[in-house]
Amino acid sequence: MAAPLRDPLGRDLMVAPFLSATTWDALDLTPTPQGADLAAKVDLQAVEGVDALRQALLLRLLTPLGSLAALGHPDYGSRLHELVGTEFTDAARLRARAFVLQAIAQERRVERVLALTVEKQEPSRPDSLRLSLAVQASGLADPVALGLEVAG
Question: Which superkingdom does the taxonomy of this entry point to (predicted)?
């Protein structure tokens, strides 16, 4: 029998240091040296609580929907990748909004979305957008916020 979780939001390996990523190759397990000796053991960093939820949301939004089907998770991910290469129009903004809401609805630790804005990142980059998201997480009084910039 598994031990009960200490934090209802969970604990996971850190793959998105600083909760940011510009490309998928920037996401990887992060080893942490245990001491000053270069030959010392290293361990993997972990995130828990609110940071675990933020990382989970970030990874879900960056993962193309269905790409983990072979691993038994056909509904994991989002459709945001479908917007890559498209100009940021009102229609694209509404599609991005719908794709985010669809993906977040699959996250069991999120009770509801409190706020979601989708806006242009920079006027000089018509194919980029910035998402700002606030959710009410299960068992938390305060909202959890996350920002994400997506460029095509």
Answer: Bacteria
